[in-house]
Amino acid sequence: MPAWVEPEFTWEQLGFEPDAMQREVLESSAGRGILNCTRQWGKSTVAAAKAVHRAYTRAGCLVLMASPTERQSAEFLRKASEMAARLRITPRGDGDNEISLLFPNGSRIVGLPGTEGTVRGFSAVSLLLIDEASRVEDRMYKALRPMLAVGAGDLWLMSTPYGKRGFFYEAWEHGGEQWKRISVPATECPRISAEFLEQERSEMGPAWFRQEYLCEFVDNGAQLFDRGVVEGAIDWELEPLDV
């Protein structure tokens, strides 16, 4: 079965009509993807659609959704359950995980809490989605990645930026060509008005506005030097000295 989500599946079977950028994410067959998007764009809905499509079309597969908190994972699963209900699938757990959805074909969607110590133990993951990835701890990310090894699973990071820090920033800036990158600022979201954005810009201040709505990685002010300046001064071709 294809890794991408067919347009007909989203609107005819899930009742979700995505916009152009949402379709780009859903229809991508990339094994490694990063979605850097504005707040209120609908990334959790897109993630739920990708998860439900994978579980519905591939028997016996495992889809994991990791989030910074258990509440966020539960909210994601609620959206996935609503979509599954449109496929005439009665929402029920897998019997092992509190935040989970079992499909009649044996596939599962499992929502994970935001702590590294409680996510180990899964294997042969077909699709790993990390929501609000910029706020997920690096050690949790490193604990999750090996779960993709056996099943050669796909990985998508989805988030609004949160400073020049962490694996989300590093993958976006330095991850190389293995990643498909999609950026969606609020100015390209048809559901967010220009009037609202102008009000937010005036009340939030430029730095916060650029981060939350324009998908920019903004320094938090804690560093002595801007990270971009430091990275620009580094010659990556120099060999390190042996001390």
Any key phrases for this structure?
14% strand; 7 strands; Rossmann fold; 243 residues; alpha/beta; single chain; globular
SSE layout and pairings?
Layout: H1 7-13, H2 20-27, E1 32-37, H3 43-57, E2 62-66, H4 70-86, E3 100-102, E4 108-112, E5 127-131, H5 138-144, E6 154-159, H6 166-174, E7 180-184, H7 194-204, H8 206-214, H9 227-232
Parallel strand pairs: 1-6, 1-7, 2-4, 2-5, 5-6
Antiparallel strand pairs: 3-4
Helix pairs in contact: 3-4, 7-8
Strand order of the largest sheet: 3-4-2-5-6-1-7
| Whole-angstrom Rg | 19 Å
Order of helices and strands: HHEHEHEEEHEHEHHH
Q: Alpha-carbon distance between the termini?
A: 53 Å
- In DSSP terms (H or I, runs of 4 or more residues), the helix count works out at 9
* CATH superfamily grouping: P-loop containing nucleotide triphosphate hydrolases
Largest sheet: 7 strands, mixed
How many domains comprise the coordinates? 1
Coarse morphology: globular
Based on the structure given, which CATH architecture is correct?
Answer: 3-Layer(aba) Sandwich
Arithmetic mean of pLDDT? 89
Alpha-beta content class: alpha/beta
Beta-strand percentage range: 5-15%
